[in-house]
Specification:
Blueprint (H helix, E strand, L loop, with lengths): L2 H27 L2 E5 L4 H12 L5 E4 L23 E4 L4 E4 L2 H11 L13 H27 L3 H23 L6
Parallel strand pairs: 1-2
Antiparallel strand pairs: 1-3, 3-4
Helix pairs in contact: 2-3, 4-5
């Protein structure tokens, strides 16, 4: 390799490393914090994105079984008394109380890091991906959450039927995707 090509290659490597370091430093400089309960699906959703992006964060456990979200010490953090709560230290304010919004924020801010979770270059695909996040939010999550909480078999049977309809829609849609072919 000629010395000019080597110089260009080294310069590019330094630029790439500095960009990665800047994203890394941004995430760590003031820190991310996530308040949540380990077995909460919503907390797990936000944690999964943080892990997929390779970001570090402070995890603060808010115990749902003892009513921590409704306690006066937690309500200033989230007046709705729910988890997860995501704090972005460099913004100096609460960022988000909703796991899908947290996920979108992290993916957007750190789109060049870790796993690519949304297609930012193709807005049709990104729109479709976002639409299915909303379908999951409004159609799948409510009945699935009820199944995890209720011991009333009548409610469970009704919920299973509703959830089955949602899963049928998912299955038909997924059959048409090239990535699963």
């Amino acid at each position: 390799m000629s010395s000019s090509k080597l110089s260009v290659t080294l310069a590019l490597m330094i630029v790439i490393m500095s960009i990665s370091y800047e994203a890394y430093a941004l995430a760590h400089k003031d820190g991310y914090k996530i308040y949540g309960y380990p077995s909460s699906p919503n907390t797990r959703r936000a944690l999964a994105v943080l892990h997929e992006k390779g970001l570090s964060f402070d995890r603060i456990t808010v115990n749902l079984t003892t009513g921590d979200p409704q306690k006066p010490s937690f309500l200033p953090i989230n007046p709705f008394g729910q988890v997860p709560v995501f704090l972005d230290g460099h913004l100096k304010h609460l960022f988000s109380l909703e796991s899908r919004a947290i996920s979108l924020y992290i993916e957007t801010v750190h789109r060049s890091r870790g796993t690519k979770l949304l297609n930012h270059k193709n807005y049709k695909k990104m729109g479709t991906e976002t639409m299915w996040m909303y379908v999951e939010s409004f159609e799948f999550d409510p009945p699935a959450s009820i199944l995890g909480l209720k011991a009333d078999y009548k409610v469970v049977n009704e919920t299973e039927t509703n959830l089955g309809k949602v899963l049928d829609v998912y299955e038909e849609r997924l059959k048409k995707l090239e990535i699963l072919g």
